[in-house]
TrEMBL record:
Keyword Hydrolase (UniProt): yes
Matching CDD domains: TatD_DNAse
Name of the protein in its database record: Putative deoxyribonuclease YcfH
Highest taxon in the source lineage: Bacteria
UniProt cross-references to NCBIfam families, sorted A to Z: YchF/TatD family DNA exonuclease
């Protein structure tokens, strides 16, 4: 049995001194996709993925950093798309919870990066927090987009859009949280649209919530899904693995 962690931040400083150990204890996690947030973050992720055969990266500008975006950054991202280890653009999106950047700035950047992905026929990893309506409005206008909705929170309006557009939905540690919306609505998510993720070092699953999250903890998310959707671990692993390979095969 093997699975893929489709969203992690192993280039984060939390892993600087322990990355080799984290990679050595991946267990059933065969590959890890790194998501990035700003230009220097992309550079570091790129370097790490070239050190480890089973790591790949998305090149993106997180909405938290939308205010720092410069027009030349588009060219930088475009150049990274040529790298053999780059699988797309991400993470990108909208985040109105912290509002580190004005909403209009976030929306403009999000739309432009989606257009870049469509132009190059690349996958995107999308972050949406407290911004579902605006995200749906933007995504509804984008055709031929290949997308993973990172850290899907269980919102049924977003789920409808994702299923209509045949997006993949990233299921992570929050599905193990007792009162989470995704836990309540997970049976509405078809396995054919599901991929697994950790968002390491964030959102460690139960029973590791006080720990620094890492890809090996994805086993706990898989176990929770087995109980919630009534499927065997081998079935969920096989289907989500195949779904994740679509990103690699189409990169």
């Amino acid at each position: 049995m093997k699975i893929i962690d489709t969203h992690a931040h192993l280039q984060s400083e939390e892993f600087n001194a322990i990355l080799d150990d984290v990679i050595n204890r991946l267990g059933i996690v065969e590959k890890v996709f790194l998501a990035t947030s700003y230009v220097n973050d992309i550079k570091k992720a790129c370097e790490i993925t070239h050190k480890y055969d089973n790591l790949y990266f998305f090149a993106g500008i997180h909405p938290h950093y939308a205010n720092e975006f410069k027009i030349g950054d588009l060219d930088i991202i475009e150049n990274y798309l040529k790298d053999e280890k780059c699988i797309g653009i991400g993470e990108i999106g909208l985040d109105y919870f912290y509002n580190y950047a004005p909403k209009d700035t976030q929306k403009t950047l999000f739309s432009n990066l989606l257009d870049l992905a469509i132009y190059h026929n690349k996958w995107v990893s999308i972050h949406i927090r407290d911004a579902t309506k605006d995200a749906i409005d933007i995504l509804s206008t984008k055709n031929n987009l290949k997308a993973i909705i990172h850290c899907f929170n269980g919102d049924l309006d977003l789920l409808k859009l994702a299923l209509d557009k045949n997006y993949l939905l990233g299921i992570g540690g929050i599905v193990t949280f007792k009162n989470s919306l995704i836990r309540q609505n997970i049976t509405n998510v078809p396995l054919k649209n599901m991929v697994l993720e950790t968002d390491a070092p964030y959102l460690a699953p139960v029973p590791k919530r006080s720990k620094t999250n890492e890809p090996s903890f994805l086993q706990y998310t898989l176990n929770a899904l087995c109980s919630l959707v009534g499927a065997q671990a081998e079935e969920i692993a096989q289907i989500t693995y195949s779904n994740s390979l679509r990103v690699l095969n189409d990169k």
